[in-house]
Sequence to fold (325 residues):
Amino acid sequence: MTEPLVKVQDLQVHFPIQVHFLSREKPVVHALNGVDVEIDRGDAFCLVGESGCGKTTLGRTIMGLVRPTVGEISYDGERISGLRDQALLPYRRRMQMIFQNPYASLNPRMTVQQTLEEPLRFHKSELSDAEVREHTENVMVSVGNDPGWGSRYPHEFSGGQRQRISIARALMVDPEFIVADEPVSALDVSIQAQVLNLLMKVRKERQLTYLFITHDLSVVQHFGTRVAVMYLGTVCEMTTPKTLFATPRHPYSQLLLSAIPKLGRKTFVPVKVPGEVPSPIDLPSGCVFHGRCRFANERCKSQVPELKNYSGAQVACHAVEEDRL
Fold:
């Protein structure tokens, strides 16, 4: 077995909440709660779940933009969690991020040329001006952008064009691993397909590894090689998209897939789930999904389930373990 490119072990991230200075309570938001994930080289690893489940926090923590409270993150066999900024610099070049909102992730005061040249001049300062310009032009062409855009500003472009500029910026330093945080959610459906096809093309050409964050299961089916389903800061199920869509094991995975309208189905009756998503400030005991799960028993309410292997999938569910589904 080869070493995974990215390995996350028992990752927990807590965000303190500002309260009155006289209060003795110090509540925290439990954004991630014991996440274990391995991403192999060449994977298009998709992370799915509803808003607020911790997908973006996981991506930002892997990138070093958020400090973990507990746990370890390893990159290519070397632990990178806990490293100071200077020690992280060699990894910054190998890891890049594409942000969700192309209208906010580009500096409005910088031209496209300046935006693309900035990471290259920082990480490859030995390059001459001519080499920087040539590399910038080559990357622009590779993602379908006109090199003549360089003198223009972000506000002069559409959402899809801006996202392709963001992709070009991520590719400027020739990374191995890219975290794409819902890169198509702010775009029209037709433009989404273009950007997804571009990301797939670039992955093959440059042998990239992706952590692709999304809430759209159709994107997972089209794009992913592996997928992890998250709920309230925990990983419920991890498998291939084909297995997930054919035989979802975790009750929450089944719930997500049941909500997808299917062609040929005359009536669509979504599955009704009791209750609301619990607050990440006051997590429930045991399995975080037990309050809304029709298969929950007393063990589910008191004991946190672990990810275990079940015929091609990893599932964290006592009901699956006890064969009660």
In short: The two ends are 32 Å apart (CA to CA).
